[in-house]
Design goal:
169 residues, six-stranded antiparallel sheet
């Protein structure tokens, strides 16, 4: 176990709110693959919406922003096949994300969207963005290997915290 894993486990053990869990995952993601922007989008397939649950740059990408889920190439890969979506140029990003100009303005030209599945349902995506060409096959493999379980843990914790918040006092 690396120091980054140890730090993640300590932060998760101390977390009392979803934001603390997401911050811990962001730190682990930075150590594993690096990123300029890190966001978490939760998925509500019944409503056809994705909601931003966490953002490392809330000025550009505020928490709780929503966007409709489009049935496109990204959807087929992430939702249909439950595989990571990777684009390493702004042109490839522009093909699936209408906010590509904002992405580019932040110095980002590559993206890795890691799907998070619980109980057979896609519940979130972990989104890492960095400079063009950053998400090499080696970085993608490392992210999938090292973040898959921590991402599921963070999603489960967020659901747990949300359920506790809804209980009567």
């Amino acid at each position: 176990m690396t120091d980054h894993d140890t730090n993640f486990l300590a932060a998760i053990s101390a977390a009392r709110r979803p934001e603390a869990a997401w911050r811990a995952l962001e730190g682990l993601a930075a150590a594993v693959a690096g990123h300029r922007l890190f966001t978490v989008m939760t998925v509500d397939m019944d409503a056809g919406l994705a909601r931003r649950a966490y953002s490392s740059n809330p000025g550009a990408y505020p928490v709780s922003g929503t966007k409709p889920i489009h049935h496109d190439r990204w959807f087929d890969i992430v939702y249909g096949e439950r595989r990571s979506f990777v684009a390493n140029t702004i042109d490839d990003i522009a093909g699936v994300f209408p906010d590509y100009e904002l992405i580019a303005s932040l110095g980002c030209g590559s993206v890795h969207n890691l799907p998070v599945v619980l109980a057979g349902d896609l519940v979130a995506t972990i989104n890492l963005l960095d400079v063009a060409g950053h998400y090499t096959p080696q970085r993608v493999a490392a992210t999938e290997r090292r973040l898959a379980i921590p991402a599921r843990l963070c999603c489960a914790l967020a659901l747990y915290f949300d359920a506790r918040a809804e209980l009567p006092a």
